[in-house]
Amino acid sequence: MTKITFSVNGESRTIETDPLRRLLDVLREDLGLTGVKEGCAEGECGACSVIKDGLLVNSCMVPIGTCEGARIVTPEGLRETDRGRTIIDAYADSGAVQCGFCTPGMMMATEALLEKNSQPSEAEAREALSGNLCRCTGYDMIVEGVLKAAERGKGLW
Amino acid sequence: MVEAYRPSSLEEALKIRADKGALPFAGGTDLMVKYRYESGAVPEYPAPVIFLTHLEEIRKIYSQDGELHLGAGTSLAELMSHSEVPELLKEAVRTIAAPGLRNTATLAGNICNASPAADGVCALYALDSRVKLSSPRSSRELAIYEFITGPGKTELREDELLTEIIIPRDRSTTRLFRKVGTRKANALSKLSIAAAARLSGERVDEVRIALGAVAPTVLRSVELEKQIQGLSRAELSERLEHFVQSYEAMVQPIDDQRSTAVYRKKVAVNLLRQFLTSIAA
Q1: Which residues, 6+ apart, have CB-to-CB distance to A146 below 8 Å?
Q2: Cβ atoms of residues A30 and A6 within 8 Å
Q3: Is there a contact between A58 and B45 if contact means CB atoms under 8 Å apart?
Q4: How far apart are CA B240 and CA B238, in angstroms?
Q5: Contact (CB, 8 A) for B44 and A49
Q6: Which residues contact B222 (CB under 8 A, 6 or more apart)?
Q7: Which residues contact A126 (CB under 8 A, 6 or more apart)?
Q8: Rounded CA gap, B212 and B125, in Å?
Q9: Are the beta carbons of B103 and A63 separated by less than 8 Å?
Q10: Right CATH number for A79-152 from 3.40.50.300, 3.20.20.70, 1.10.1090.10, 1.10.150.120?
Q11: B143 lies in which domain range?
């Protein structure tokens, strides 16, 4: 057991746990942040995406022992910000959500993209979402949502 | 339950590696899949684990004597955005997985995992790269083709860590990297090619060709390259089919869930021909 202190959505958390547990499980089970989804558990689907120290990561691929001092943002944190609300509204207005399971991860990938590149091209949006699988929409509406968020959110990123 | 170590220096990491036989854990994107257990459960590692990527000593990228040194802890995304990383390697890394995994995964891990289908490794063969292996008492360098000995097999000793990847300056004038997979993101390669050549006027001064996923390790023939080097572009053009056939004889792929031996061989040889044609007259 190891004591690990890290920040989640701006709040400092200290937990004592096996450092080899996945960040995904700590977020969902210990902290109740179930916006982070487990899809494939092998880094392929992006449903568990979070932002760690400013970078998009698959939380199923991150042992909690590597998170000492890290700053984590989950979908629960993103949705409370102007950026998050802009992404949510743009997704809704684009019909980008069907079953919704991939949506939290897609939103995190969208935030990570717009943070680096506030006015992406369609090709750049597709590349940024390439690690996030959606089995409902066929992606076009999600890409539209990303571009709509970029357009409406001028100045936010 | 195995131990996990988070050393505070490379020296301490090397000591843990030597004393405990601990499993080097860089980005972890292969290890977490290889040893994953049930949903919600801790992966079942066969040995204690040492986390490495936070160590400053192996997070540097620097040039020395005309060669680029990549610290083993640097992520694939960090390589992609570094101005001195050769374009051939960047192109290969760009085809690995997707943005989230590239923020986590390392090239050092790609090497130590020693898959013949590793796209980054294919480019490293074509770039004449070496690896630096450190132990508590000493360090040594091996060429990438000496280090990787078979699928999942390397020369890494039980007291060693791969600490640096060393890449000579790439002076090529023509390059090709192609990965053939089921889709662009996240797919593992059916096969890949990384090739570079330096042309001066009408002569082929240098050529380096690596083929991925068509043999137990990445395939590169220095012998055939020597036969091509020094030829005029017209001479290469005349002897092109001879060289293609020589490579074809060496390409010995397998059937697996990703592709068939027949497809792999056909496409690898076609890509090789495409590259040789691009440098011939």
Answers
A1: A87, A90, A110, A113, A114, A120, A125, A128, A129
A2: no
A3: no
A4: 6
A5: no
A6: none
A7: A139, A143
A8: 10
A9: no
A10: 1.10.150.120
A11: 4-168
Residues in chain B closer than 8 A to A109 (CB atoms): 99-100
Written as tens digits, the pLDDT of chain B (281 aa) is 799 999 999 999 999 999 999 999 999 999 999 999 888 889 999 999 999 999 999 999 999 999 999 999 999 999 999 999 999 999 999 999 999 999 999 999 999 999 999 999 999 999 999 999 999 999 999 999 999 999 999 999 999 999 999 999 999 999 999 999 988 888 899 999 999 999 999 999 999 999 999 999 999 999 999 999 999 999 999 999 999 999 999 999 999 999 999 999 999 999 999 999 999 98
Amino acid, res. A143:
V
Instruction: Return all residues near A36 (Cβ < 8 A) that are at least 6 apart.
Output: A24, A27, A28, A48, A49, A50, A59, A74, A75, A104
User: Using CB atoms, which residue from A18, A22, A41 is nearest to B1?
Assistant: A18
- Nearest to B13, CA basis, from B48, B63, B61, B42: B48
> ipTM of the assembly?
0.95
Cβ(A92)–Cβ(A102) below 8 Å: no
Crossing angle (nearest 10°) for helices B261-279 and B233-250:
170
- CA gap A22, B94 in Å, rounded: 26
Q: Are residues B212 and B228 in the same domain?
A: yes
pTM of the model: 0.95
Question: What are the chain B neighbours of A63 within 8 Å (beta carbons)?
Answer: 4, 25, 28, 32, 49, 51
